[in-house]
């Protein structure tokens, strides 16, 4: 356990102020940030493709951290965490399990987005006893139709973004229309709110390995998600070009008793575009 934990600290509920911490497990140093009141079941955030600790929208994390112990982390080989990114989603889930148990938790809630949602599913399938509640956003099931096309979409939008000197997420996460463009800019600006102690960017090699893992996940036989008993909240925009929106409906059908929210006129980043609506829903779901 890292020595830089102080129990007498005032409770931090703004992600931009969350201290950067590390924990060592299985020869890997995992970088993470924690905030919110300690005690109770923590909410662990599983981040998206190419993302580091700096990619979480504070308008989503902060409302949850007002009432819950929140932990965001860089999985192996990502950002400031050491080691190499594995080339399968299942191995990423094993690393996440290593990280969570290294912090001493035996029960967590999960908030996941995109690739993070794949990893979350693989984790809950293997360790159902670890997870109390599951939030799956902008994601889809193993073997989901067209998940293996993520790489092509991503590279195309990176080119489009480079041509306009924009952040690729403006193209990948949002519609290029009158509502999507300002929402995209607002989101990208919110990610800059933290000014001190920023994370290391993901390496090209790590990013390419993640894409390879996503392709394999998309082409694999589906997991039996009917066994899941965890309360599950599923959300997306109605026009997700990265992980097609129909896959959120597919997940909803596969997971008994799950709740589904599809936001209109929005893309992969629908929850970020509609954060004012979505954050209270997530808070209420976790509090139940």
From TrEMBL:
Coiled coil: none
Stated name of the protein: Pimeloyl-ACP methyl ester carboxylesterase
Lineage: Bacteria, Bacillati, Actinomycetota, Actinomycetes, Propionibacteriales
Transmembrane segments: none
Domain AB hydrolase-1: 43-272
Pfam family, one: Abhydrolase_1
